[in-house]
Design a protein that fits this description.
With about 400 residues, the protein is of the alpha/beta class. It contains 18 helices and ten strands. A seven-stranded mixed sheet has the order 6-5-4-7-8-10-9, with helices on both faces. β9 and β10 form a beta hairpin. Bound molecules: S-adenosylmethionine (SAM). The site of S-adenosylmethionine has 18 residues, from α12.
Length: about 400
């Protein structure tokens, strides 16, 4: 059995504002529970849309598993690539995917209702707004296929909550619960997750590169570098930068194969585990991209201290990953996905920007701030500076 999971910190001393908010929410809850008010709000054209919207959202939650399986069905039939710039009618699609027309029509109509496909002239189906990225970014289809592991693990949600670390997702990510993973597992285990990460990293890389001025640095160390997709893109964008890649040795073997030969003299590979090995010196910026959330607080604290030690004064840490909505802000449904994904994976968790800021400050970083970026669902970005050395 793995070590006990961390708890997210909870604020226990309410402010006067919190007490007012509680009273307001109690009132709202009472109104939501009232059948009279429900009937009144539907009869009134000014309030009807609010009640409708709430009912539709609840229905969507109930039906969400069907939505994901419609999506998976379309991915497995390769419908998005098939219909990209080439709308087709039901019979043509049925012949191409070798399915009988009647059930296939249900799938296509469901995909239309979800915005994945849309009706075109002469009874044809084309891509809807949500289908286009699926045709043009293969990494999304790979993540959808991969999510089947989580879907199977969560089939019985209460059994999952008792034994989350025993599912197929946990086996997929060996380092998340085995500190000696690099010694205990076959190369194929590392290849599987490293390729998935590289395929799904495109949007994250784009967000980071367009949000932070890397040109002010000389040398960047990417810790948990995976196949080197971020480091390679950064090297191409900022030609004067030197890059160091640190990851478990089976993963860096894959990075060496993947990195373009034109970058080889600017990239250095440092195999090791940040649990047991020191980080290489020399970088004035260290990046942790989708690394912190895989690990419990104790491991993350030690890693952040190592990062701080490895930097010169004036150096910086850039931490990028999906982060939880801060308390008190309206919930983002993507948080539910990441909470369960990380639970199934091992011992890490989704943290708010504030929790990560505090962990960075405890490790010695100052001036820790969120760097605004356009698409927070892919990643949020924190930057912190090393402005003093910690006492030994
Ligand atoms: C979720 S992946 C993210 C990879 C890449 N940064 C990205 O965003 O696609 C986490 C990475 O951290 C690496 N990692 C996990 N534990 C590690 C450890 N103890 N030492 C070094 N790297 C580790 C994994 O091998 C993996 O490549």
């Amino acid at each position: 059995m793995p070590a006990p999971l961390d708890l997210a910190p909870v604020t226990v001393t309410p402010s006067t504002g919190d007490l007012w908010r509680d009273a307001f929410r109690r009132q709202i809850e009472r109104l939501y529970a009232s059948p009279t008010l429900y009937r009144w709000s539907l009869a009134n054209p000014l309030t009807r849309w609010v009640t409708r919207r709430r009912t539709e959202r609840l229905f969507d939650l109930m039906a969400g598993f069907v939505h994901s399986q419609v999506l998976l069905g379309c991915v497995r039939l390769d419908l998005f690539r098939l219909l990209h710039q080439a709308p087709a009618d039901l019979d043509t699609i049925a012949r191409r995917v070798a399915l009988p027309a009647p059930p296939l029509q249900r799938l296509l109509l469901s995909a239309v209702s979800l915005g994945l496909l849309e009706h075109r002239s002469q009874g044809r189906f084309g891509l809807g707004a949500l289908g286009v990225p699926l045709a043009t970014h293969p990494g999304i289809a790979q993540m959808i296929e991969h999510n089947q592991l989580l879907y199977e693990d969560m089939r019985d949600p209460l059994a999952f909550l008792q034994n989350a670390w025993q599912g197929r997702m946990a086996a997929y990510w060996p380092y998340a619960h085995d500190p000696q993973a690099a010694e205990h597992h076959a190369q194929d285990t590392f290849r599987r997750y490293t390729e998935l990460m590289a395929a799904s990293q495109g949007f994250v890389v784009q967000e980071i590169l367009s949000s932070y001025p890397f040109a002010e640095h000389r040398c960047v160390l990417d810790v948990g570098a995976g196949k080197g997709r971020f480091a390679s893109a950064l090297a191409r964008q900022v030609p004067h930068l030197r890059l160091q890649l640190f990851d478990l040795s089976p993963v860096l073997a894959l990075a060496r194969e993947a990195v373009g030969p034109e970058l080889h003299d600017r990239l250095q590979f440092h195999p090791g585990s940040f649990l047991h090995d020191p980080l290489p010196a020399g970088a004035d910026l260290i990046t942790l991209v989708r690394v912190a959330h895989d690990h419990p607080d104790e491991v993350l604290r030690a890693l952040l201290r190592k990062v701080h030690d490895a930097l010169p004064l004036g150096g910086a840490l850039l931490l990028a990953e999906p982060m939880a909505q801060p308390d008190g802000e309206p919930g983002a449904p993507s948080d539910a996905y990441f909470h369960f994904y990380l639970l199934a994976m091992g011992a890490g968790r989704l943290r708010t920007p504030d929790e990560l800021r505090q962990l960075m400050e405890q490790a010695g970083f100052s001036h820790v701030e969120l760097v605004p970026n356009a698409m927070p669902i892919h990643t949020r970005i924190l930057i912190g500076r090393k402005s003093r050395c910690l006492p030994l």
